[in-house]
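Troubleshooting entry. The earlier prediction with fe (ii) ion gave an output that would not parse, so I re-checked the input for stray whitespace and re-submitted. Clean input:
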Amino acid sequence: MSKPFKLLIEDHNKVKTLIKDMLASSSKDKAKRKEMLAQLKQELKLHEKIEEKYVYPPMEEKKATHDMTLEAYQEHHVVDVLLGELGHVDVSDEDWKAKLTVLEENLTHHIKEEETELFVKAQKNLSNDVLNQMEKDIAEAKR
Ligand SMILES: [Fe+2]
């Protein structure tokens, strides 16, 4: 995988690990759960922003990745909705874990599509100049 996508995959792995930790946490440890949820929100929002600003637009322009990119925007939207709902449930409520599990399932699907199809097609169809610029923009935004 070329460099810009490697940076995005690092984020994916970070988020997956965080969610695993959240699901394994005790419902009695409310402070910890709140802290991890705040971190998850921050990570996801930044990651979505980076993808939607620097990664998706050039992919949307290419025929090979156009449709899948439009789907990816919608998948981000679903993640945002689920994340918003999670914020409205008490962290010690059993529904919190149920909602988080559904969020994890959606994210896993989205991440898998990006890593195994969308990014693979994108790196074949985008020029080196575009990929290099993308890498610079992502690295800058992550800072
Ligand atoms: Fe994404």
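This one parsed fine. The domain at 3-142 is CATH 1.20.120.520 (Four Helix Bundle (Hemerythrin (Met), subunit A)).
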